[in-house]
Amino acid sequence: MKIFNALVLMQLRDKFDFSWAKTLKSRIQKIVLSLLKFIFTLVVLYLVINLSCSLLSLYSFAQIVDVMILFVGLILLMSIISCTVGLMKNLYFADDNKVLVTLPVTGDMLFFSKLVVFYIFELKKSLDMLLPMILAFLIWALQNSQVAWPVFLWMWFPFLVIVGLPVLIGSLLSIPTMYINRFFKKFPFIEALSICVAIVGGIWLVVYLIGLIPENIDLNNQWAYVTNFIRDFLIGFKTKLSPFAYIVYSMTGNPVNAIPKHQINWFTVATVASLVAVVGSLIGISYITTKPLFFSMMTKSFEFDKNLIEKEMQNKVRKPFITFVNKDFQINFRSVEISGNFLAVYIIVPILILLLNSLFAAMNTKLSGDIMTYAFNILLILLPLLASNSMIATFYSKEGRAGYIKKTKPVNPLLPLIAKLLFNLAFSLPSIIITMVIFGKFSNIGTINVIILSFAILFIQYAHIFFSATMDIMNPQNEQYATIGESIDNPNEKNSTLLAFVLSFVIALISFGLFNESSIRTGGFTQASIKIAIIGLALLAFAFGSFALRIKAYYYER
Amino acid sequence: MYYLLAIGTLLLMAGLIVLMRFKFVSKEKLVFEKIITFLLIGVFIVRFMCYKDIQASGNEEIINMFTDYAHSVSELKPFSPFIGITANLLMWFELTAIIVLFLRAFFDFKTAKNLVRFISFPIFIICIIALKPLIVMMQGNDKLSVLTFALPLELGISAGLSIYYFIKDFKFKTTIKDVGMMILSFVLLNLATMPPFMPRFLFGNAYVLIQIIDISFEHRVFMYIFIVIIPIALYAALKNKPREIIEYALIAISVGTLTGFMYVYKYDKILEPWSWPFHLCNTAMFLMPICFIFKPKRLFYFTYFINVAGALFAMLMPNYNEWTNALSPTMFHFWYNHGIAFFMPILGVALGVFERPKIKQFYYSMAWFLVYFVLVLIMNVVFTAMGHEVDYFFINSTFIAEKLGQWAENIFNFGAVNLTVGSLQLEFHPLYQFIFYVVYVLIGVAVWFIYELGYNVVDSHNQLILKLKQIKVDQLALESTLNGRSIEEPMIEDAGIRYELINFSKKYASSKNYAVHDANFTVVGGEIFGFLGPNGAGKSTIIKSTVGIQPISEGRIDICGYDVAKQPVQAKRLIGYVPDHYALYEKLSGREYLNYIADIYQVSKEDRDNRLAHYIELFQLENSIDNKIKTYSHGMKQKITIMAALVHNPKVWILDEPLTGLDPTSIYQVKKCMKQHAAEGNIVFFSSHIIDIVEKLCDRIAIIKKGQIQCVRSVQEIEKSGTTLEEFYLTTIGEKPEEK
Fold first, then answer.
1. Of the candidates A304, A334, A410, which has its C-beta nearest B572's C-beta?
2. pLDDT value for B57
3. pTM, rounded to two decimals
4. A411–B600 CB contact, under 8 Å
5. Chain B closest-CA separation from residue A291 CA (Å)
6. pLDDT per residue over B558-592, tens digit each?
7. Spatial separation of the C-alpha atoms in residues B585 and A401, rounded to whole Å
């Protein structure tokens, strides 16, 4: 057991940043900060539930536990997807496999240590969303006599078991995923074609859904229909995907015809026991099916698995800056996880705005409603755009040692570093233009204001790109990428995402305030748009200035 | 009568000055700078506190003296607008003048001296001349009162003390710049001492629609001024000033604003403890001068963690209403108070008067907060039970709860506890008050994190500035060395093909010790130079500093006359580098990667075609050069790295453990390449642990141990001495070779 613990700890230290554990001060800081973050998320989620239940009566004909089943189900489904992809990389393609295989431990230990590490990672991840969400639902349910207070003592054990489910299911699903992945790697054309088909299919689906939106939505009169529809949907979800219902009942207690409506009884104990049995079976199946493959892949050499290319290519001469741009575009296009992610976001944003505005257009809103929709548009454009930039906060570090070697080249360091951002700078531009054209089509704020706001969004997007890049330069993680090929706990990525959320909300809030203020003056909207654009420009100037100055300073050889 | 008293006091002071100057010179400083100064402080406090200030007491008679209404009622105008305005401004400036005079006893720098000599003294004299209008302005008439005695006495002593300083600093020379600084300082100090009624007195009432609430445009302007502009301007103005000036400014500002704040607190309030300024931000007005004058650390950190956050919230949600006029005394009383409570503690740390807090100081601040909370809680319930509406820190009413919503009001009303102590009915709201306390402690914790974040930003910014300054200095030094020559030319002319370390040292940021210390050697064209040393000796550090991966801490590295630190681009053009671990872009093909490197070094099409064809054949990569690098074996990747280092035919070829992982044929080919490259007059510098190869290949070697170069010798010389390189190496690094 001691060896197993050491093995788990070793991998955890490799994948997580434990620098906070060095001093008492940093430990306290980390704990308090995490606690504050947890409480903040819990409060926000509670307020959202309270808003949708008490104020909007969104689920007035349904039970809150049924809503909980839907959201817990969705989160678990997403976890299964992320675990499948993560475990595929972690079990079969991780760089540390080469080291682990040489250690004097049994194969079973290695396999289970990998699963335990992933389970701990999932547990940590669940503190961000799953656990606060469950607690928020339960607090609301307790206030409304739908569950009894002992649920807060009972729920922890089933919760710990539930978190393990996506890991185990993911480990099983990782086998076919790995084969699909290898197939795609072998035939990149089919991979690209599949992505294109998926994108076109997605667009078609959204456009189809937009077509279904009625021309006139009158929420006031149709509210009963809406809530009935929600109830039917929730009941449908609960019935069709009943395992999720039982998963939730294992924490809340089973439904009874009394108050509180969910009570922990022998049936709940049986539900938890079944859950444990399912987990046990999954461990067994996983051990039988996944472990042999894990070993065969672990010891497999990936050298020379490429056929010889008959045709000899020619040497080409390019200017230094062009060659940096060319290299980064080539690498990005050859890395589906990079280009696919970015291009997906750049395609999704306009579709999202189309969908949102189609909904708004069908509603009869007043002036204050219009102002809210404008601010909401800005929020929904910025959120996915900026959040996708978090990957930029890993761009330089991801190069691993090649990133250091770049410093040995006789060029102004700004050139290769800027060239690396050009892919995003270039591709986000058409996305923003199309998005704002769609926004302009639906809103009646005038072409000039749409153009000014487009510039504002563009400036903020570029500013965030430079902020994210600066984070990576100032806190490089090259060693982590060079040794283990990935960084699960990259602080820059997290900070960039956090900044994306803060920036998006703050800019949307400022926009709302300015639009609101502008509504009392003629020409006020243009003034408000110009102010937002100036804020964006100031951010961009600051971000780029800081980026360039820091490169100048930290790439200096003294 | 009051004129007589003022002039008499002044004459008495003049007599005392003459007496001390000629009879008791040694006691002069003690008498004037201590005894008289403290006497003056006492008289000032009596004057300031012990009369009922007509303007601050809400009497509209004086405030509206020059408004349209007052003009229509002639009996409300005791004198002309000119005299009225002048007297009011004098009241304001006298306050600044007297603070400057107090501080002169403790500060001795140029502006402190000039302010007393050229500003305070004339103001006191004008005030003596304008005594009557001043007294009327202050109390509404010139009937006998404490004020009619205290003010002339104060002005007489102040003028006399100014004369003393005038004589003392008589020989002190003043430039035009000093005069400018003095005037600027006086104007800025006046902003601090401005009485809250002054804007309304000077400009009347503001336009009624200007509402400084609800984050409106006007409210935002006030927030920008007090939260951003003033603190940043003060920081920028003071950050590079000597400690004495910083402390002077902070004391003057905190005392000045305290006097403005105290306009509404007069002697009659002393006996009414329920009116004392015990609101959190009010306490800051007293704590700030105390902290900057006496430097009690624990008290300071209380305001640093608690007051700042409270003031910020107050400025975001001011506790006046939409009817409060934008130029009213209430408005300026509020903003001065909360502005000071917000930015003065931050400035105290930012300007280095107080050090950055450690976790211990945070705990102290929380302990102080507990004391404060309990105190105001008791005061609230006791005074409320006595029939006074007291709500210090807003914990005794629903004022905050109402802003948060019904749920908060419910908590306030939940479980109220009534206690009877004597005749008093004390009412507590334990749940609400406990939650209030806990939330504020959490806010304190959040403030700690925000400060930490702020320190990181500031440190990073300061480091950046330092680095940029260093770059500028180096650039100027380089230009001076080049003496008008182009930056593309080497710093040392006619250096030839040469690689030189001059007193090079390297220290890593996280370490106290040098990784390499005072390393010196020179390698010239045509040489193959071997670099030996145990693991961690500093070989890679020297190589990485040469090629630009690590910055240089001290000394210089020259490549063919180019300083690597100051002319990095020019130096790097001449270097080809093979790292100890290959580092390639695995998604590119071998050819794409080599072309990418050739583009960076701007190698012509013809040269790259020839060189690549030659090396592809030499390293037998014909069949794989157009495959992706990720499909290559370790040896193939190493070969690509070597080819990339040679594609521009470098003058200095640096290899760090280049032969690791290569097959015997490849090793032979690399060795051949190295010989060939040196034979063409270039430098080949390589580190290796394989001594046999070094012995056979190198002309000279250097041995490094624990960051110190132990020796630089020619291989021939070592062999002539009858020892092998291996034995020589082991002896040099202190590992005795085994007996043969």
1. A410
2. 47
3. 0.75
4. yes
5. 26
6. 999 999 988 888 999 999 999 888 888 888 999 99
7. 10
